[in-house]
Every structure is written in C-alpha cells, then in structure tokens.
Amino acid sequence: CVSSLFQSEEGDLIAGGWDGRIRMWNSQGDVVWTAESVDRVSDFARQGDYLFATCGLHIVAFSYSDGKQLWDHALEGSADAVTIHNDQVMAVSSVYDIEHNDFLESAVWCYSFTGELQWVSRMSERPWTIFSASDELVIGLGRPQCGLALLDSNGEIEYKELATESPVMCGINGKIKQLFGHADGTVSDGNGQLIAK
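and the corresponding structure tokens:
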C-alpha cells in the first residue's frame, strides 16, 4: 500500500509504502531501484543526489541515483514531514500520548545533507505542514497555539496568527501566496486573510 509519492523535475516517480519499501521509476515507467526503509514512509524531499524520507520514527537519507541508504537517525516520536531549507534538511516529529488522546510535544530537526544534527527546536503544538519560503521555515500548527511558526536559521520560533483560530491541517507554498487549510473547513493565506469559508 502506497503511503507517500514524490515526482522529480525530470519526471521520475518515487513511491513509499506502509511496509517501508521505496521504489523509483523513470519517466518511461522503468524501475530504476528499490530500497527498504525502517518503517512506513510518510514524506520525501530531494536535493541533488540526496533523497530524504521520513520513515516511522526515523529520517533516512538515500542516494537518489541508486537508492543506497546513506544515513539514518531516529527522532523523538513519529517522523512526519521533511523539507529542504537553506541547504539543510528539516524534519518534524511528534509524540502522541494514548492516555491523553493527543500530541504532547513536537520538534523540528535540522540536519546537514551528510547527516550531522545542527539543532532541534521543540514546541507543544503538532506541525501539520512544513515548507521553505524565502529565508523562513514555515510550519502550520495544530492545538494549542494554532497559526504559524516561523523558524530562523538557528531554530528560534516566532509565532504568527492566521485569520482563524482553528488548527492548521495542511498547507501549500504557491507561486503567489501561501495557503493553509484549517480543521473548521476554512482556508486562509499567510498574510492572515480568510480565502474561503
């Protein structure tokens, strides 16, 4: 069962599965390589010959050209999403507590492309979306803070409110503006304007 997809600018397609298998096809539909990761694949990011994936509790780096695993680090809680920002790899993780039926703590992890940890920034909110926008790392937040977290190059967090107090569940960094989908069904932009109800 496929759990995550990634398409490159060259037209290659990479699929990650619930079983941890990762497979790449070229634009003609030929299998280029298959790799095994430690757990369910939830997200991909690419920079040159590096392919980064969040797999279960881990962030894993592979060679884009042949699928060989380069490095692997366990995060605290579920490794949810990954992106490239300022020539570094950013991954978010979240810890879920069954007794509280909620997420207790989350973190943003900054790694070099070769796997050296640069910094960790922890927060109480669960990040539901993460992307790079100019010099800022933008994170859409769930409860209790909601809104956005903007992280600088040292992992310092600045919180920003959006048009609604409803938790951010998804987001996209478009060519013209950033859009965020909220749990109450509304859509807002990064400037705090309500786009759709």
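(Above: one complete record from the training split.) The chain is about 0% helix and 60% strand.
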